Amino acid sequence: MPSIAVLSFANLSADPENQYFCDGLAEELLNALAKVRGLKVVARTSAFSFKGKDVKVSEIGQALSVNTVLEGSVRKAGNRLRITVQLINVADGYHLWSERYDRQMENIFDVQDEITLAVVDALKLKLLGEEKAVVLKRYTESAEAYQLYLKGRYFWWKTEAKEFAKSCDYFQRAVDADPTFGLGYCGLSGYYGVSAARGMLPSNEGWQRAEAALVKALELDDTLPEVHNNLAATRMFYHRDWAGAESAIKRAIELDPKYAEAHTLYPFCLAPMRRFDEAITEGQMALALDPLSPRIKHNLGNIFHYARRYDEAVRQYLEVLELEPNSRVVHQDLGDTYEQKGLHAEAVAEWQHAMRLAGDEELATTIGNALAESGIDGAVRAMALNRIERLHETERGEYVPAVEYARAYVRLSDIEQAFKWLEQACEERTIFSLFINVDPFYDPLRSDPRFADLMRRVGLPQ
């Protein structure tokens, strides 16, 4: 089967801020090509992981298991564009096709169509009438709205919260520029949903805003897989409608079987229902579409952990750390898995690593001393007491998910306080409370009738 990786386009403009347009153009071409039947297209995270690196095309092809690579550059000056694109055969490094486009910004949609069709032709693939219409579908005719949307997508991929938050403003400005732009509303819905799920916004506020934008997106275009994926997240996290969430995810995959984000979300729906084998299969499918994505690898490690397949979880986390050695949350999760395996020294070492990455050398030293003096019980107690103190300090200035308190009190064996905060956590509907019923961390609570009652109220098996 023909296969392709669309790399981030190089920014040759005088203004470095034009990188948003280079990334956005490449991503839009990637999305269009992903709709071509018979063509394997590597998802964005993996394809863009080579940005700014001096890596041979042959090495990229081997890493991503593709036989062609599309690369390009953009020079943008005011309203003028010069876009250079080349399709390269991985096996011998020869150009299968290349072209230069000198156009005005308002002609960007025509250029995208020309590039897409040229690549399809160079790969000797055929587009029939209906499929061609799907591949070349335009979601807005407004160049202004389109540029604002691309800026939103650029910041959407940022991991730092303040940078990520900028995506909301650009998505809002995109729909202000074109109120019929369904993808813009989808972007808004995704921003508010992620912010609510991760505890960046109070959950009810975030999910209500996400749902309002989602309703508008569905009204404008119900053929977008992104919209149905966001609908699944809303049903799962906010409404706890597991059957409805699964139905929406299946619809997203039906609309675009190569949509990695749907295969990434699906395990979050399956694992809480203890359908671990299916969850792992979907996670592996997401990884096949986006093989170098640290996030997808991390998620799969989490699913292995919840399935109590700890050795596989450890292997998955270690693979993530090869890509992102300074990921604080992965070191934390790896420590949690080592704890379940009874490898206490290794667990504390990983927790300490996470603390140092967060700039907390004092706490890392404290729990190390506690481990030496009182064993693992002393280390986790010191960690929990410090966590509660820090949470109280943080709470004065920003929202803190209740599940953070619940976990600290479980570590202190304070069952009453743990249940008090778990009740609130389940009401908050963040991603952190989604796996309470399957997370081995909460095993000390399972024999208490309140645990089964709590799981019934959120529609989950104990």
Would you kindly provide a written description of the structure presented here, covering whatever features stand out?
The chain has 462 residues and is α/β, with parallel strands linked by helices. Among the domains are: 3-138, Rossmann fold (3-Layer(aba) Sandwich); 326-400, no CATH class; 402-462, no CATH class. 63% of the residues lie in helices and 8% in strands. The protein has helices spanning 19-33, 44-47, 57-64, 108-122, 129-135, 143-156, 161-177, 182-197, 203-220, 225-238, 242-255, 260-270, 276-289, 294-306, 310-323, 328-340, 344-357, 361-395, 402-411, 415-428, 449-457, and strands spanning 3-6, 10-11, 40-41, 68-77, 80-89, 95-104. Strands 1, 2, 3, 4, 5 and 6 form a 6-stranded mixed β-sheet that branches. The radius of gyration is 23 Å and the shape is globular. The protein starts with a strand and ends in a 5-residue tail after the last helix. The relative contact order is 0.06.
